[in-house]
Automatic annotation (TrEMBL):
It comes from Pararhizobium polonicum. One of its GO terms (biological process) is glycerol-3-phosphate catabolic process. Keywords: FAD, Flavoprotein, Oxidoreductase. The lineage of its organism: Bacteria, Pseudomonadati, Pseudomonadota, Alphaproteobacteria, Hyphomicrobiales. PANTHER family: GLYCEROL-3-PHOSPHATE DEHYDROGENASE, GLYCEROL-3-PHOSPHATE DEHYDROGENASE, MITOCHONDRIAL. Residues 16-350 form the FAD dependent oxidoreductase domain. This is Glycerol-3-phosphate dehydrogenase.
Length: 513
């Protein structure tokens, strides 16, 4: 049954799998499972990627620094996934070169960096991504924004991803394949009864409660995974995850180069400075243990000072707190492996099946990262097959996400194609639409022949036709969903424009409900 953007599909009598959590892991598992023939429903208590999955550093990367903690399996799997994911979604994922400045007496010796980058180049099946090279910073343009003491640097490849769109496109594809996808739907209880799960789900907007039966339950609630176990599943003394706060700052563009920077700090931590949304630079991240409610996460003044200070060690023009135009913070739900420092806790994922013989099984998902979400999904399906029987074969490695059906290196050609069909589009607008929607951008624009056909203008290059698409096709319900997760136009719209968008969406959603 198809169900995209709405939630009117009746529940099946008995589902194979019920997934709790609409972050990258939950949506990735739901997509993989329904593609193999399982019947699936998913409930997210808020909007897709409203927690951790939209608050990452937005990298598809092997994790160069994880080599120091001997996480070779995770690094190799991550490196292998870079080009797989790029081919799956070339509109929202693309290669990026990273410059790692070096000077004598620095944090790590040159031989250690070279060794790490050699492994990075050779253990991950790299095909399209260019190899590492050494830069003479007395001649290379990458030196321009940096202090003069950095006369040498190493340049290597990783990838960039629009993290929130990666989540929603997995959800969209799962829905197109027949999964029932519910946002703003909170699981209030889940109990084992007669070899099945009975799951009660409350519609957050209306208070209405629906009941589902499922053969297996998947707890992919991210930072709330232990909360689900304690509250909905009524388990006592639960402590599986270590919550680690990661915060980022966004400042006006610090450099014109398309490459990003990898900075090493005296405390042995690293931060990135990355070109962001054309006009900005993203700087992050921090690593601090967090003990509060994940929904209350906020950057602290100390974190802002830390990121500004760390970046200022490298940039010739200091980064000051007054330069910050936006911040965001997320809680990483790392599996608690007993590491003494937050930055040393494993970034690998752990999957655990709970349930005695004859009981309906429960799969708990701990940890994970954007880069390995697809492989986590495959491993989760192995656990699911062992618990309730196998259906279908692994299929996602050669798949594409909605809008991603063009060659990995074909983004510019897609922009040219869209411009040819809609010549009234400004270059920047066309590029943004292809970045977000890929080959679906033309369907979004429909029969528009001039700018006026795009409808109400909400600010920047956001028009009614796009907002309506996001409501109908991508579960957007509030201005925040559009401005900070489906797009990043929150950086460009004024408060008054955002309020106007919220009013329009409130009326539009009400009229189609």
């Amino acid at each position: 049954m198809r169900n995209v953007g709405g939630e009117a599909v009746p529940a099946q009598d008995v589902l194979d799998i019920f997934v709790i959590g609409g972050g990258i892991n939950g949506c990735g598992i739901a997509r993989d499972a329904v593609g193999r023939g399982y019947s699936v429903a998913l409930a997210e208590m808020d909007d897709f990627a409203s927690g951790t999955s939209s608050r990452a550093t937005k990298l598809i990367h092997g994790g160069l620094r994880y080599l120091e903690h001997y996480e070779f399996r995770l690094v190799r799997e991550s490196l292998m996934e870079r080009e797989v994911l790029w081919a799956m979604a070339p509109h929202i994922i693309w290669p990026m070169r990273f410059v790692l400045p070096f000077h004598k007496g620095g944090i790590r010796p040159a031989w250690l960096i070279r060794l790490g980058l050699f492994l990075y180049d050779h253990i991950g099946g790299r095909k399209l991504l260019p190899a590492t090279r050494t830069l003479d910073m007395r001649r290379d343009p990458a030196a321009k924004p940096l202090k003069a003491l950095f006369t040498k640097a190493f340049e290597y490849s990783d990838g960039w991803v629009d993290d929130a769109r990666l989540v929603v496109l997995n959800a969209k594809d799962a829905a197109l394949k027949g999964a029932r996808i519910m946002t703003r739907s909170r699981v209030v209880s889940a109990e084992r009864e007669g070899g099945l799960w009975t799951v009660d789900v409350e519609n957050v907007a209306t208070g209405a409660v629906s009941t589902f039966k499922a053969r297996m339950l998947v707890n992919a609630a991210g930072p709330w995974v232990d909360v689900v176990l304690s509250n909905a599943l009524r388990k006592n003394n639960v402590h599986n995850v270590r919550l680690v706060q990661g915060s980022h700052i966004v400042v006006k563009k610090k450099f014109d180069d398309a490459r990003a920077y990898f900075f090493q700090n005296p405390d042995n931590r690293i931060i990135f400075a990355i070109p962001y949304e054309a006009d900005f630079t993203l700087i992050g991240t921090t690593d601090n243990d967090y003990t509060g409610d994940p929904k209350d996460i906020r950057i602290t003044d100390a974190e802002i000072d830390y990121l500004c200070s760390a970046a200022s060690e490298y940039f010739s023009e200091a980064v000051k707190p007054a330069d910050v135009v936006w911040t965001y913070s997320g809680v990483r739900p790392l599996f608690d492996d007993g590491a003494s420092k937050a930055q040393e806790a494993t970034r690998d994922y752990v999957l655990k099946v709970d349930g005695d013989d004859g009981e309906a099984p429960l799969l708990n998902v701990f940890g994970g990262k954007l880069t390995t979400y697809r492989r986590l999904g495959e491993h989760a399906l192995e656990k699911i097959a062992g618990a309730i029987g196998a259906k279908g074969m692994p299929w996602t490695a050669k798949s594409v996400l909605p809008g991603g059906d063009f060659p990995a290196t074909g983004y510019d050609a897609e922009v040219a194609k869209l411009k040819c069909g809609y010549p009234f589009l400004a270059e920047r607008h066309a590029r943004r639409l292809v970045r977000l929607y890929g080959t679906l951008a033309a369907r979004l624009l429909g029969a528009a022949g001039k700018v006026e056909d795009l409808g109400l203008h909400f600010g920047a290059d956001l028009y009614e036709v796009e907002v309506n698409w996001l409501i109908a096709q991508e579960w957007a319900r509030h201005a925040e969903d559009v401005l900070w997760r489906r797009t990043k136009l929150g950086l460009s719209l004024s408060q008054a424009e955002a309020a106007g968008l919220e009013e329009y969406m409130r009326e539009t959603v009400r009229s189609v409900a």
